[in-house]
């Protein structure tokens, strides 16, 4: 049984009766939300060695949170379907039940740093990672009595249009800046350096693939798997994998250029500016570079003055940093995207 199916049975067969026995008309929502590979439907036998098991998110009114949590802590039996209802997460010593009881606002703010049902600022949108959003929108919902999860998820369907353009432009700007460096390093005999830059560019292209597909990107462990499942991205996946397999820089840049051509075609299909081809020669050198005009036309089409004023090429928090300590904490993410000292030049 996978984690999603387990969570559904846990809710329907055990948690629901415990709740309704005490509060017959308790308004609530429930699902397998938050962290964990099972939220994405990607857990397997190996996933069970830590932080896997009887897990559930239960959303109730703020005034009921403490009472409901205490009730479950007292009334849950030791096991369900042969699995412990109480166990310690990684880094913890004391076992506890893992029905996360929270209000809708507290749950979503804890992941995102804001409540998307309210007005969200440009900085707010730029401060979220795809993984943070997936912890809210990806998992199965078993009950949504008052529609709160539905409203939250509707608000998180995608970026506002101009923020989307800005994020897409940032990926192209990064590709323009670094693509010829990959080839130059290889041409100089620094194959290791060329491979390191290639890996960075592949990750940028993967982010671009998710963004053009209007899908939130997961954290790196599941990025390749979920890229392969994006509709119409099989060719992009194939060419990006070939970049990393390539034995020398010429093959590397050719495979990357093929992936970028496919991404630019997807961009045109999405209704965004897509002046082709995706790459061109870099001065008089035998290197390819992503066309600067692509990012420039995306930026030129931004109408929102607040988005237009953003530093070009800085982007969202997950385009600015790969630091897990930053990306997994909403206050640090918000602080980074709001830092005025980070400019085009800095």
Characterise this structure.
It is a single chain. The protein is of the alpha+beta class and 346 residues long. It is built from 16 helices and nine strands. It has two domains: 153 residues, no CATH class; 155 residues. A hairpin with an 8-residue loop joins strand 5 and strand 6. The mean pLDDT is 95.
Structural features:
16 helices; five-stranded mixed beta sheet; 346 residues; alpha+beta; elongated; two-stranded antiparallel sheet
In one word, what is the shape?
Answer: elongated
Strand content: 5-15%
* Cα Rg: 23 Å
**Share of helix, binned:** 40-55%
- Parts with pLDDT < 50 across at least 5 consecutive residues: none
Protein name: DUF4037 domain-containing protein
Pfam families: DUF4037
Structure summary:
InterPro entries: DUF4037 (IPR025117). By secondary structure, this protein is of the alpha+beta class.
Furnish the topology, listing elements before pairings.
Elements: H1 3-22, E1 29-31, E2 55-59, H2 65-75, E3 79-80, E4 83-84, E5 86-87, E6 96-102, H3 104-112, H4 122-126, H5 130-137, E7 141-144, H6 148-155, H7 161-187, H8 191-212, H9 223-228, H10 234-245, H11 249-269, E8 279-282, E9 285-290, H12 292-300, H13 305-308, H14 317-320, H15 324-327, H16 330-337
Parallel strand pairs: 2-6
Antiparallel strand pairs: 1-2, 1-7, 3-4, 5-6, 8-9
Organism: Ruania alba
Domain DUF4037: 125-222
InterPro entries: DUF4037 (IPR025117)
